[in-house]
Write a structure and sequence with these properties.
Elements: H1 7-12, H2 16-29, H3 34-64, H4 71-77, H5 79-105, H6 113-159
Length: 161
């Protein structure tokens, strides 16, 4: 079963050569006057010209626009972003290494393993809460508070049993 596309759909898609016979049929079916036919044809011609001009402008923009550089190229050209990325990677690697090393070695530390786990978990909690503290204290203040909490928990773990 074949169902033809609607005239509105054809006009929206810019398929004027298919829409024109449909509009002619509608004008004939509705017994439109010659004046109404002239108005409808002129509106169709203006719509077609406008669509074509918009299409041509967009095509020119597409041809004239330069291709965006890849993410890696733009990163390599921006030295500050590259430095920040390297520093973030170093911090992530050292933090992960310290966290997993501490979790591995906590069972070999002298004292109660539960006490040692709780105290070493304080530094983890300080790092988790750092984002919230940064909203209140700023970036430097949040990092300072989390660092101080980590130092306190480390000193507590080392000297108090």
């Amino acid at each position: 079963m074949y169902i033809p596309e609607s005239t509105v759909f054809l006009l929206e898609k810019g398929l004027f050569k298919y829409a024109r016979p449909d509009i002619e049929y509608l004008l004939k079916f509705n017994k439109a006057s010659e004046e109404a036919k002239v108005i409808a044809r002129s509106l169709l011609d203006r719509c077609e010209a406008k669509k074509k001009s918009v299409f041509e402008v967009n095509l020119k923009k597409l041809k004239n626009s330069e291709a965006k550089p890849s993410m890696i190229k733009s990163l390599m050209s921006d030295k500050l972003a590259l430095r920040n990325l390297v520093m973030m990677i170093m911090v992530w690697v050292s933090s992960s290494f310290t966290f997993y090393l501490l979790n591995f070695l906590v069972k070999y530390m002298p004292g109660d393993i539960y006490f040692n786990s709780v105290v070493s978990g304080l530094s983890c909690c300080a790092m988790l809460l750092e984002g919230t503290m940064q909203n209140w204290l700023g970036v430097r203040g949040g990092m300072l508070v989390s660092f101080v909490a980590t130092v306190i928990s480390t000193v507590w773990l080392c000297f108090f049993d």
